[in-house]
Each structure stands twice: as structure tokens, then as C-alpha cells.
Amino acid sequence: MRERFEAVVGPSGIVAGDELRARPATWTRPKEPCAAALLVRPKDTAELSAVLALCHEAGIGVVPRGGCTGLVDGILCGPGEIALSLERLTGIERVDPVAGTLVAHAGTTIAAVQEAAEAHGLIFPLDLGSRGSATVGGAIATNAGGLRVLRYGMMRDLVLGLEAVLADGTVLSSLKSLVKDNTGLDLRQLFIGTEGTLGIVTRAVLRLRPGPMGHATAMLACPGLDAAARVLARAQRRFQGRVLSFEGMWPGYYALMTAQGRFTPPLSREHPFYALVEIDCAGDEEPAFLSLMEEAMAEGEVLDAVIAASEEQRRSLWRIRESVELLDEGGFSRGYDVSVPLPALAAYVESVTRQVRAIRPGMDAIAFGHVGDNNIHWAITPAGDPVGDAAADEAVYGPLAALGGSVSAEHGIGITKRKALGLSRTAAEIAVMRAVKATLDPRGILNPGKVL
Ligand code: ZN
């Protein structure tokens, strides 16, 4: 098999043996080696097309790998499959600062795209903790979200055009930079958020935005999520939709982050809810931000607040929200990523926390996340046995269908959440997904066993 791929991509396009085993299976399995027969690294779209045509003809499964920062094992490979890396398809082809667009190859990191945009006085708004490793192709395939979705949308909202290769090697190129294009089916959407199951993205036209005028950032203590939601609505009205982030932290999260030896608590630990709010606002709008805080306090929506007076203070507030690796160290190693409509979110968090604590003595659940996007993450202590863990899954996922929520807000389905897909999508929807898959990838070679 190796010779046939080597004939297409050359010796430098193949990684095998110990060098391949040195690569991790997935982000969540760092000690498990990648099990693929080979890793193939085409250097351009033409080579990638030839690789897929070969796999299609021979019926070999192809598992695409981006920056390996996904959380649902979407890049897990079997021994008979090949791993496909776009690490040689990197670079930014062009930036148009007037139109606010950028064309990047799929293997380019998000950080490199951000830097290229900034060199032209603009920003690429998608921002993730994993920006230095996560790639354009991976972010498109998983429809990545992150910390600024409230203001700029998810990856889906930032892709104007793309080029993708289908299972049989057909190159589908739609690298237009049009904002408006009503010419039938929007084919881009077949590849955004479908985790490499319908085609492999090779290039994209991305949308750039003017950067914020400045940041007004505050950590708030609120009597509850509902009060915090009223502060968010107030801020959106006052600043005309310029709220960049509105992150929520329930007391368990705040207590863990500000425990002895960790971060100094900017607010006392006794409050029922904490929010981190950041607004795109110019320096001379500071009085408006202060009066917003005063109003919210007068209405009882905010009990206490700390406003960042410097960039260093702003960063230290953000560190409390971003240092999620401390959850793992604290024993909260089972993560979940769900959406619940805002009006139902507070009661949902309360009920799930109660149910998880009742599963086994010592079990606990911590909630935090992008509440402005109706998206929270759970960090739960493992039960130590499959029955207990299944009960935790049921506590988190069980109520979602009735609430109109989602089992995956931003992390995708991969393998990990496949069984839960039916809780968020109807049988008719899943049947359409299967029909599309069967049409575009009749031999089922693209990322086999993922999503569906
Ligand atoms: Zn998140």
C-alpha cells in the first residue's frame, strides 16, 4: 500500500513506523499512538485529490487530522486506515484589507491567520485557547466556536468561500469572496461542521473584521444567571451589540480557580454566580460603561464588580475563565459541551448538579462557559465505574431534548458523542444526513464511523 501512496506524494509525503507512532491518537488520548497504517501528507490540492482517488478506488478509510486539538476523538484512526495531514498545505495566499478577506490554505494555524490580519490593521475574529495548533481546515471541519462568538459568530459565519476535495478526488472549488451569492444550494455548508465526513477542505476565503476600539472588561458577582442575563441585555442595548464576550462561572468553578495557591479571587467566593463581561468600546466611552455597572447594581442585578483598570488586570480576570486545565488537576476530568436556551439554563444547571451529586458520594459537577451564547461546559468527577459515568451522561444529556438544547454546542460529534446525536436531531434529520453521506461518499471512506 505504501508504494502506491509514495508514488503520489513522494517519500517526504509519508510518515510511518516509529515516527508515526510518536504522534498521539487524539487530543484526549495523548499517550495512545496514532494507529493508522500510514500518515500521508500531500503538498497541494492536486496531490490530495490523487490520494483520495486512490483510497476511493481501493476502499481505504481516510481520517483527516488538523491541529489535533479536538475534544471528541474525531481524528481517531483504525489500523487499516490512513491518516491524512494537511500540514504541508500551509500559508496565506492573499489578504485584501479593503474587502476584509483573506485566503488561507487549510493547514495554516489560526494564530498565523490572526497575525496576517493584524498586519493589515484588521482581526480574524475566531479565537480559541488552541490557536497556535488549531488549523483553518480543522476549524472549518468542526465549525469551531470559542470566546468571541457572541460578537462575530462561529467559523461558519467567517467562511465566504472554500475549496474541498470529495471522496472520489473531485476538486470542488468555490473560492469566491462574495457576501451575497444566491445561486442555489450553498455547497460550503456541506463541509463546515461535518468533521471531514463529506470532503476535505483545502483552502478557504475567510472574513476579516475591524478590531475592537478598546476593551472594557469586568468580573461581576450576580444573584444568579437570570440577573446576569439582564445585565447582558442591558449592555447589548447600551453598546449596540458590541458585547465581545459574556462568560459565566457557577460558584464551584470560581471556588476551584481561586482556591489556595491558584488565582487571587477578585471578588469574594460567596456569590451565587459570576460573569466576565467584555465590551468593544473606545476609551471615551468609559463613563458609559461605569454608568451601566451602576444601573445594574441599583437594580440588584450585580452584587459586586471588579473593573479591569489595566491590560494586566484584564488578563488576570481572563485567566480565571481560561485556565480550564485546572479542572483536570482538581479531578473534574469528564467534560461536556451543551447548549440550553437561556431562560431554561439556570434551572437546568441546578438540577444536573443535584443529580450528579446523588450518583455516588464525592461526585460533583462544575458548570461554566459561554452563557451569552447559551453554551455551557460541564466538568464532572469520574464515577470510577461505567454505571456511574453513564448516570452522569444521562443527567447532562437527558433533559436536553425537552428543553430544545443541544448535546454539542461547539465541540462536534466525532466518536465520543455519536450515541447522543439522536437526542439533538430527529430521525428524519439523521436520515437526510445519511442520504447526503451516501451520495457524496458512496464507499464510506471519509472519516469512517464519525458523526453518524
Ligand atoms: Zn468553549
What distinguishing features does this structure have?
Alpha-Beta Plaits, 4 domains, five-stranded antiparallel beta sheet, alpha+beta, 20 strands, 452 residues, Uridine Diphospho-n-acetylenolpyruvylglucosamine Reductase, domain 2, 22% strand, Uridine Diphospho-n-acetylenolpyruvylglucosamine Reductase, domain 3, binds zinc ion, seven-stranded antiparallel beta sheet, globular
Topology:
Elements: H1 2-9, E1 14-15, H2 17-21, E2 24-26, E3 29-33, E4 38-40, H3 45-58, E5 62-65, E6 82-85, E7 92-96, E8 101-105, H4 110-118, E9 122-123, H5 136-141, H6 149-152, E10 159-165, E11 171-174, E12 200-207, E13 209-210, E14 215-222, H7 225-238, E15 243-249, H8 251-257, E16 273-280, H9 286-298, E17 304-307, H10 311-322, H11 325-329, E18 334-339, H12 342-359, E19 365-370, E20 375-380, H13 386-397, H14 400-403, H15 421-424, H16 427-440
Parallel strand pairs: 4-6, 5-6
Antiparallel strand pairs: 1-4, 2-3, 7-8, 8-12, 9-13, 10-11, 10-12, 14-16, 14-17, 15-16, 15-19, 18-20, 19-20
Helix pairs in contact: 1-3, 7-9, 12-13
Bound molecules: zinc ion (ZN).
Which ligands, by name, code or SMILES, are bound?
A: zinc ion
Please state the average pLDDT score. 96
Number of helices: 16
Shape designation:
globular
Strand order of the largest sheet: 17-14-16-15-19-20-18
Our measurement of the CA-to-CA distance between the termini, rounded to an integer number of angstroms, reads 28 Å
Specify the structural class. Answer: alpha+beta
CA radius of gyration is 23 Å
Given this structure, which CATH class of the largest domain is correct?
Alpha Beta
Record field, number of beta strands: 20
Q: Write the CATH architecture name of the largest domain.
A: 2-Layer Sandwich
Q: Kindly estimate the percentage of residues that lie in beta strands according to DSSP.
A: 15-25%
How is the main sheet built?
A: 7 strands, antiparallel
CATH topology of the largest domain: Uridine Diphospho-n-acetylenolpyruvylglucosamine Reductase, domain 3
